Amino acid sequence: MWRQQFRHDLRQPLMTLSLLLDTVATTSAMDVENRGRLMELRRQIEWMQDMLGMAESEPAARVVDVGETIGAHCTTAAATCEVRFIQVDRAPTLVDPVELTRAARNLLDNATRAAGDRGTVEVTVTRSRAEALLRVADSGPGFGRIKPQHGHGLVNVRRFAERYGGHLNIASSHLGGAAVTLHLPLAASATAG
Questions:
Q1: Cα torsion 164, 40, 112, 179: sign
Q2: Residue 84 region by backbone torsions, left for phi larger than 0, else alpha for psi between -120 and 50, else beta
Q3: Most-buried pick from 85, 123, 128, 168 (CB within 10 A)?
Q4: Which tens digits make up the pLDDT trace of 160-179?
């Protein structure tokens, strides 16, 4: 019962923030940079609402394209480094899209922190044989030379991958830093024929 109340107590301020953002966005004149900040706040609120929804029910796996699911977040990431998003192939997989987005956000957040203010992060979606591949490469110092907490979230990403029959691979990046590749099985419809 207390968990239900806790979720309810979190939903109320999120709804209030959402209404306040709508008011500011429609009644205030602002420059492009501040409008972008408002849009990022909106995305963060929506993300928290999605996470609350996920906590209220079992994960709902469905066929989603990895690039379509995470592409918009990559191109609008609040990062001080350059973030490139490249979708080489359609990569449909059977997963919960909220969990996939959460895993991708963890990888992207780690990479942007490692790359630093003037670094580069490259997010590539492709497929190989029967796998959808999400590769996040950065120009940072590489694993083993990252400040503490920069690898935070990798355990959760690995668990997510394993839950859906995939795995995580960590290697050196062509950009000079680390490259983390999330491997997920392609949806059956993508491997048939």
A1: positive
A2: beta
A3: 123
A4: 999 999 999 999 999 999 99
**Could you tell me if 133 and 127 are in contact, meaning their C-beta atoms sit under 8 angstroms apart?**
yes
For residue 94, what pLDDT is reported? Answer: 93
Helix (H) or strand (E) holding 51: helix 32-56
User: Would you kindly state where each structural domain of the chain is located, as residue ranges?
Assistant: 2-56, 62-191
Q: Which two tokens stand for residue 61?
A: 């796996």
Cα(108)–Cα(79) distance, integer angstroms: 9
What span, in angstroms and rounded, lies between the C-alpha atoms of 183 and 181? 6
Q: CA neighbours within 13 Å on the CB side: how many for 102?
A: 25
Residue 181: beta bridge partners?
A: 135, 169
pTM of the model: 0.68
- Calculate ∠ Cα 70-75-80, nearest 5°: 125
Residue 63 pairs in a beta bridge with: 94
The fold of 62-191 is Heat Shock Protein 90 (3.30.565)
Query: Mean pLDDT over all residues of the chain?
Result: 80
**Residue 95 CB burial class (10 angstroms; 0-12, 13-18, ≥19):** buried
